[in-house]
Design brief:
Layout (H helix, E strand, L loop, with lengths): L1 H8 L18 H15 L23 H13 L10 E5 L3 H12 L3 E7 L2 E4 L6 H11 L9 E3 L7 E6 L16 E5 L8 H10 L2 E3 L1 H4 L1 H16 L5 H26 L3 H16 L1
Parallel strand pairs: 1-2, 1-5, 5-6, 6-7
Antiparallel strand pairs: 2-3, 3-4
Helix pairs in contact: 1-2, 3-4, 3-8, 3-9, 9-10
Length: 283
Amino acid sequence: MSRGWIRAMVEYIGPDKDVPAPDVNTTPQIMEWMADEYAKLTGDNSGAVITGKPLGKGGSEGRDVATALGGFYTFEALKERVNLSEKCSVVIQGFGNAGQHVASFFNNASHSVMAVSDSSGAIYNAEGLDIQKLIEHKKETGSVVGFEGSKNIEKVLEINCDVLIPAALENQITSENVHNINTKLILELANGPTTPEADDILFEKGVVVVPDILANAGGVTVSTFEWEQNLKNEHWLEQDIFEKLQKIMHQESVNIYNKAQTLKTDLRRAAFIVALERLEDAM
């Protein structure tokens, strides 16, 4: 199926046209199959047509954690500006690639991850979860449910916390449940987890929503690094990747925050405005 998709799309994608990147349930192996099929059809062996490939097959160091790490860098850039404490309580909806990695980053920075969920259910511990053991439990059982020292809960999005991280699917925070959201900051690692109606209500309530266009941009940023490495036939060190990523995420977080403050609007509209202004300049 993956190779068939490339055969159907070969005219429309390419290193100089459109470069697909991984998303839900696509693995480095799948991306490699796609890059290989493109090479067979076109003779272009650079690998720059697709990102998210395995290391050793044109993939980039750090790509597997890039979405989560970019989100964490964004949080770090904004936390003092939005008056969050040094040690925050964190709730994460979704415990796949992005959810597991972002849980580790927050946990390693001494924040308390109190609750997480996956497609099977949700768990909670007011004192904080042992994230490394939880990741091992998920690998062994296929779910976070039943993790030692936790209790099962139902509405993970509605737990009182400092930072709420939707890292699953779209349309999770809606006009139906937004009034039950009890957090100071929402960090959108998923694409489109908050509906426009809920967005406006959260802004009125004083809840800071760091939009997906900023919060989860680490993944596509490192995809851009992978594309550049492929075109140059280079392989950059992980430390260099992370330094480049942190600089970009910090700079853009501050740019968007300042635009929001100037225009007295939310971060999502500010991000769109910054993007449109750059398009205007480019055109």
